[in-house]
Specification:
Helix content: 40-55%
Number of helices: 8
Distance between the termini: 24 Å
Strand content: 5-15%
CATH architecture: 3-Layer(aba) Sandwich
Length: 295
């Protein structure tokens, strides 16, 4: 039950993102840190670790003989589906993009929790690599898989190193490599989004390829790694229609960011109404009318 001073009705998600991390725990649907949810979480971490080792070795071997995005896609999708299936998570995917697999693009995804990398790998049916921070190359076994993939890494150790790695990413995308990046600087743990980082949008503008919004709607209902809690469930994901950069001025990065964000916010709005309806139904004193059903 939410506290008496918790925000009510339409204001539930209206606060600044500095408050969101703590308030996300109050969102109806987030796994509570019960004994069962914690046992499930530790099983999930064990299962992820156990499966990552053999799949990383298999991917490394396959990519050595056929270093293509399709090879990475084939093995990363299998790996992700085994992980999600092993912890009782299914996917509900709506693909509105009508993409041609051979045409490069940049997928822009929101970030709710640890499962997002597996969700995107399993759900998106097109070959792509990840646009990721260089620090991930130091994670055991995961780094092995990422290094033997078409993923691109951004070195943020200095401005010069960052610009050099961004220029390399632009060139790779121009040559036909699709990538996915998580646009926020951190995980939201709720159906909201943190402010977007500009770097990847800079890459998109320079590469001149379409941006494809990928909205993870309710991963937060399945796992909250901050409190070691998770449970089986269904994650819904929408692959939106591409946004062509020809419709924007070449230097107007904020306008591009806003266009992508508006598309993703429209998808998340239904999930927020769903959570607010559950909150109101659980707390009749909140006032207002709960909104029932799925968006």
């Amino acid at each position: 039950m939410p506290r008496d001073d918790a925000p009510k009705g339409d204001t539930l998600f209206a606060h600044t993102l500095s408050d969101e991390d703590e308030r996300a725990r109050k969102v109806r649907g987030v796994p509570e840190p019960t004994l069962w949810h914690r046992l499930h979480f530790f099983w999930a971490i064990f299962w992820i670790s156990l499966t990552t080792i053999p799949f990383s070795l298999a991917l490394m071997t396959a990519y050595h003989f056929r270093p293509t995005a399709r090879t990475f896609k084939r093995w990363s999708s299998r790996w992700a589906r085994v992980i999600l299936g092993g912890i009782g998570v299914s996917l509900d995917v709506e693909d509105r993009s009508e993409l041609t697999p051979e045409a490069p693009c940049i997928f822009v995804a929101n970030h709710q929790n640890l499962l997002d990398i597996f969700t995107t790998a399993a759900a998106i049916p097109y070959p792509f690599g990840y646009l990721a921070k260089k620090e991930l190359t130091r994670v055991p076994f995961l780094s092995l898989a990422l290094r033997h993939s078409p993923s691109l890494f951004i070195d943020r150790s200095s401005r010069r190193a960052s610009m050099r790695s961004l220029a390399g990413a632009v060139q790779s995308i121009r040559e036909g490599q699709s990538v996915l990046f998580f646009a926020e600087g951190s995980r939201a743990y709720a159906p909201v989004m943190h402010p977007f980082k500009k770097g990847a949008f800079y890459v998109a503008a320079k590469a001149g390829v379409p941006l494809v919004p990928v909205t993870i709607r309710d991963s937060y209902r399945v796992m909250d790694e901050r409190h070691y809690a998770s449970r089986p469930g269904t994650i819904r994901l929408t692959i939106g229609a591409p946004i062509a950069l020809e419709d924007f001025d070449s230097d107007d990065t904020p306008a591009v960011m806003n266009a992508v964000r508006e598309r993703m916010e429209a998808e998340l709005a239904g999930e927020r109404r769903r959570a607010e309806g559950e909150e109101a139904a659980a707390d009749p004193s909140a006032g207002g009318t709960a909104q029932n059903g799925e968006p």
